[in-house]
Amino acid sequence: MKHNETIMRVRYKDTDQMGVAYYANYFIWFEVGRAEFMRAIGLTYKQLEENQIFLPVIEAYCKYKNSARYDDQLRIVTTLKFLQEVKMGFQYEIFHLEKNLLLVQGETVHAFVNKAGKPVVLRKKNPFIWKLLRDKLQEI
User: Fold this and answer.
1) Which of 51, 96, 112, 138 is deepest in the core (most CB within 10 A)?
2) Domain boundaries, the chain
3) Which of 107, 126, 136 has the alpha carbon at shortest distance from 41?
4) pTM reported for the whole predicted model
């Protein structure tokens, strides 16, 4: 499973007075998709942090194609795009569930750092987590 799909609904608080989702919320929804991707492969952010591995965002991109609106159901497709020893990247597509309409495409890049914010080589810091992620990237 190189990708994961998550379903969620646009909440009222996520929209403006016209009922259109605020643009920055898509980055929050990327995080929802990423956390569920990790959970689906058997690894939570909590477990990473317990192992002194943190994943700050070092790059983020979003291309808006259509608007999500209040109460729309969304399908977030999260794909592990690449894995390197000190960072990894995800790709996202968010669709309107009922219409199967692409709303946004985006990407994030995350560094592997310790609690002090210093880069770590994941392969050395935690070979088990490195292998788990590497194996998921190689699945088709």
Assistant:
1) 112
2) 3-138
3) 136
4) 0.93
Distance of CA 49 to the CA centre of its chain: 17
In the chain, the largest separation of any two C-alpha atoms, in whole Å, equals: 50
DSSP 6: E
* CA of residue 2 relative to chain centroid, distance: 12
Q: Closest Cα to residue 63, out of 37, 92, 34?
A: 92
Check if the beta carbon of residue 102 is closer than 8 Å to that of residue 76.
no
List the chain pLDDT tens, one digit each, 140 residues: 588 999 999 999 999 999 999 999 999 999 999 999 999 999 999 999 999 999 999 999 999 999 999 999 999 999 999 999 999 999 999 999 999 999 999 999 999 999 999 999 999 999 999 998 998 888 75
